[in-house]
Amino acid sequence: MKKFYLTTPIYYVNDAPHIGHAYATILADVLARYHRLKGDEVFFLTGTDENSQKNTEAAEKNGYTDIRAYLDMMSVKWRESFRALDITFDRFIRTTEDEHKSAVNKFWSAVEANGDIYEGVYEGLYCNGCEMFKTETDLVGGNCPLHKTPPKHLKEKNYFFKLSSYREKLLAHIDANPEFIMPEGRRNEVRSYVDKFMEDVSISRETMKWGIPVPGHPGSVVYVWFDALINYLSGVGYGSDEKKFARLWPADLHLVGKDIIKFHCALWPAMLMSAGLPLPTRVFATGFFTVNGDKMSKSLGNVIDPVKLAGRFGNDALRFFLLREIPVGGDGDFSTTRLAERYSSDLANEFGNLLHRVLSMAEKYFDGKVPLAAEGSVPQWAAYEKGLETLDFAMALDAIWEILRDSNKMIDTEKPWVLAKSDTDKLGKLLYLLLERLRHAGWMLLPIMPASAKKLFAQLGIPDEDRRPYEEAKAWGGLIEGGILQKGEPLFPRLNP
Ligand code: MSP
Fold first, then answer.
1. Are 117 and 111 in contact (CB under 8 A)?
2. Closest residue (by CA) to atom 25 of ligand 1?
3. Cα(9) to centroid of ligand 1, in Å?
4. Which tens digit of pLDDT belongs to each residue from 262-291?
5. pLDDT, mean over the chain
6. Which atom number of ligand 1 is nearest to the Cα of residue 229?
7. According to the model, what pLDDT value does residue 130 have?
8. Ligand 1 pocket by C-beta < 6 Å: which residues?
9. Burial 464-479 (b: 16+ CB within 10 A, else e)
10. Does the pLDDT of residue 146 top 90, yes or no?
11. Ligand 1 centroid to residue 40 C-alpha, Å
12. What pLDDT is attached to residue 308?
């Protein structure tokens, strides 16, 4: 059995999840479900990044004196939001867990034993929002361009990681493994950073009180990024369940946002090299999206709550829309009006109506039963699979919608209501073809719109269809002659205004 270990970034809990956070998590969920269907041993990790100054500041701002209580409350909120969005994570990690802390200890010691940690003084600028050191050239008008706030001046005794001594090895790895950093534009960006700008990095904080104490030096805490990246190891048993760790590591895919690609493709692989561990196979960076053309921000009041949105349109419609509308890897724009448009055009009309039309005809002409099996094929499987293997979600959706649109067209050109009077044999074959194609489309939709695919199967009279082995399901002829169809409610009912 092939294993597939994939991760999302772990999220800061200084606020509730917004649609941008839900995006990466939903993409990961689609892939997790797809690989499970194929029979792979999937491990899907997500969780919360809790040892950040942003979180402790948010706790104080919200009137919490007990930071731990704030973190507990917020972490539950994130986990429950992901559950509400139908995210099938296998583990939800928190960086305040003991298991994670001992993994960080083990990792730090390995890097230290390798001679890669030294003591020094850091003096410079630091942006709390990014949890990152800044140089004057990073700033716009004295502010961090992302957070629009001035960085703080910091001077403290820190431990440093010899990142720069991994420059050559990193470059060689990036060049030899084109799929390590995707999409390609990001690879070039990281390569040039590693080549020209990458310096040693401070990996401890003397002034911060919240965090994982540096092993052997309890006066300092581990820099939050050094700590957070290790979640990808502790999440699968590093330092606690070595058997599990050996089975699942290295990760097959880290899904991250484009703003954190350098941490994942420079610092992280160098840390792993230092600790003597294999590198993840692939890091894929997704773009950022705006809302109706604006950056999402509290002050603009345009922050979109994914759970509320799913409550209105349904999880499946939201998942479909994010995959359909935002070019993966690129930046995109989110608009609720576009979501409503896609809901009625692509989902209600092209998909829901097709099912309804086909089942109504089967009811009318064949007593609600699957007619005589007919020859056919679904050539779209190849493009669908290629799309999901390469994270080209648009390609996968195009393959499915080609089946649906072509089926709709076929009804219009073949005119079953005319055939009903002239050639019932041909009519039976046509209906079988349409029904069987819907079954295939249902399979392709299972990872993307799981609830709708299940409803589709129920209406085709095969409610347990998703239990069938994937390879068998892909073959033509899954629907059996005489099977009893169960026409039901529309898959995508009209939206309330
Ligand atoms: N805690 C770090 C990640 C540590 S991973 C070892 C972090 N957290 S975050 O909560 O700020 O962001 C998590 C992810 O959400 C990032 O990948 C980020 O790119 C993504 N997004 C945040 N806002 C976004 C949009 N507006 N649009 C798309 N993705 C966005 O960074």
1. yes
2. 20
3. 7
4. 999 999 999 999 999 999 999 999 998 888
5. 94
6. 6
7. 82
8. 9-12, 20-21, 23-24, 49, 228-229, 231, 256-257, 259-260, 288-289, 296
9. ebbeeeeeebbebebb
10. no
11. 27
12. 95
